[in-house]
């Protein structure tokens, strides 16, 4: 479908075509301007009706809940065998770009991003009864205000009444390196534990900078890269990426709870309280105690 035809279809709906923002195997995403109010939007143009239908239905359902992780839905239509979906344009950069500019992220940044993603994926499973199936750094956007957004819902699939779905029912999906083994097997059965695997691989990438799509596919534990990282965080990620789904945390909600505990324990106030307790227990010299208190209290996040 050429540029002129897309422009004409969008103009009839009140949009001005600006430029190509991205593309995939079955769709392209354009930046468009809504002529009524000048709002910049994203328009996904797809040739896969099944994928388009799943995305439209899901985003319309999510929009009514005001879940902040997901882009806002505006409208959708089909014309001459082409399918259009207009939604919020997420300005900023992909999480992959964000990591490449920094080599890797701190544990605190990684846990914060992981908490936001786990909360949204738990929402999809518990409220929408779907699996995301394509969590990767390219599908996560960091907005200009620092907010995290999840984009591209073309691989979502509804769960059966048993909470599991067979790949042959919806087609195998996911990106090797991020996707759980069962997502890429012809007879694999996916479940909530499949998205758990993907978030484990993603968080490992954020905190180490080691691309999961590059060999070796089995990555060392995170403390092999930096011994200062938390053993508790390392254990969580190792559990998430186990080959067998039944050996991983069974639900994203469990991952979220453990990430929230990690976030709490990494806050300056928590560290300060732990230092106080440790110094009292061990009768450490007062000057060391005061030095650590000053270091922690100087952190701008101390007043959280």
Category from helices, strands and their pairing? alpha+beta
Separate helix tally:
11
Rg, nearest Å: 22 Å
Outline:
globular
Report mean pLDDT, rounded to a whole number. 85
Strand numbers in spatial order across the main sheet:
1-2-3-5-4
Task: Give the biggest beta sheet.
Answer: 5 strands, antiparallel
Tell me the series of helices and strands, N- to C-terminal.
HEEEHEEEHHEEEEHHHHHHH
Helix share, percent: 40-55%
How much beta, percentage-wise? 15-25%
Q: Would you identify the regions where 5 or more consecutive residues have pLDDT less than 50?
A: 282-304
- Measured between the Cα atoms of the first and last residue, the distance is 52 Å
Looking at how many chains there are and whether they match, the oligomeric state comes to single chain
In total, the number of strands is 10
Structure description:
By secondary structure, the chain is an alpha+beta fold. The protein is 42% helix and 16% strand. It has helices at residues 3-12, 49-63, 95-100, 107-128, 167-170, 181-184, 192-208, 231-240, 252-265, 268-282, 286-297; strands at 15-23, 27-34, 40-46, 73-79, 82-88, 93-94, 130-131, 140-142, 148-150, 157-158. A five-stranded antiparallel β-sheet has the order 1-2-3-5-4, with helices on both faces. A three-stranded antiparallel β-sheet has the order 6-8-9. The protein starts with a helix and ends in a 7-residue tail after the last helix. Mean pLDDT is 85; it is low at 282-304.
